[in-house]
Amino acid sequence: MLVRWPSHGPSGVPDVDRLVETLDSFWRFLRGTGRMASSSADPRELAKEARRAAPRMPDACADPTRHGAAKSLVEFGESIGLTLDGAGSMEELNERMQQIVEAWNALPDDQRIAMSSPSAHQGSLRGMASTDLMASLRDDDGLEDVFGLGDEDGNIPFADLSEVAADVRAAPFVQQCRRLVEWVGERGREITSTEVLRLAPAREAYDLLGLSEWEREADRLAYGDLVSELPLESQELWVAAARESFRSAADCRPLHRLWTACLEAGLLELSRTRVYAAWDEPTSDEEWRHLGVVLASAVLIHAAPIHVSPLMGALLHLLDPARESMPLTELEDWWWQSPKNHHTLVGRRDESARSWSDSALHRALHEMGDLRVWRREGDALLPTAFGHDVALMATTLVEEGVVDT
pTM value? Predict the structure, then answer.
């Protein structure tokens, strides 16, 4: 009420009293129907907190310094007669947003700075967010800007909708999410108080989805020759031991990345003790893109912190419109020089450190390798339409502080 709504909610001040009443009714409904998480605060405490925040909400909403970058841009559009309300399609919505961005970029620099909230980027939000992020991933001396983000005005258009939807439909990760949801089914599966599958059904899902393959490849990339040189029988024992070792479904990365993504996308619904399937098959290219972006953002948000910077580097390198492919050796060189690389931070520059640096990069790429945000061809990554849009989404997540590089 004091942070998220003023930053990202509708312009103006809502009917605060009605909002509090609505929240109170909603929380009591969730608790009464068994749909509220067992770890949640009591509805009465939540309502009490809402009432305490209510008197301060009008001032918070009216304070332009609390508005996020996207909201500031939308309000600028409304001030010049361009509104996003009433758009008949995603294409029309994108076209209106592009007009607003172009009008914003046409303003003198000092006027843009004066009108921007402290958290907003000046200029094109999509283009400048990407540029600022890449600056944070390069070394302090600054590398040559090989990324080629945006046109001469700094604007980066979204990819062709039909191509994005085709990428999403074909992504192995999306198909695995579908299989997980189908396995959960309408009758549901038991979950723990921490809202993950109980161990027995978690291991059943692990076997059904063939997640040992993903885990075996993750270990091979992370540990290199240490795993690949083991006899096949020993490798099988390694994977079997990993399956039996986790004491919570949340500790099993190949399962948990599917689980969190399905929850974020609303493909699974939780009650106090069970999880239920809620897959709603997309009926348009627009819906497929939305589903894909939500799933991809969940994977990025829940990735281990050491994987985020390499993933962002790969995504943004592939935004370059002049780049038809990204040799993995070039990406390895970039990561070796990055100040975000912990091998650089500890000052190790020997052959062993370089080998571990390359392994860390490839292990990070494995986190999103089945999402079709790029295509692997030999020793190179090829850009995809879906990867283009995910990269734009990722810059927004970083800009809003949701993802920390």
Answer: 0.62
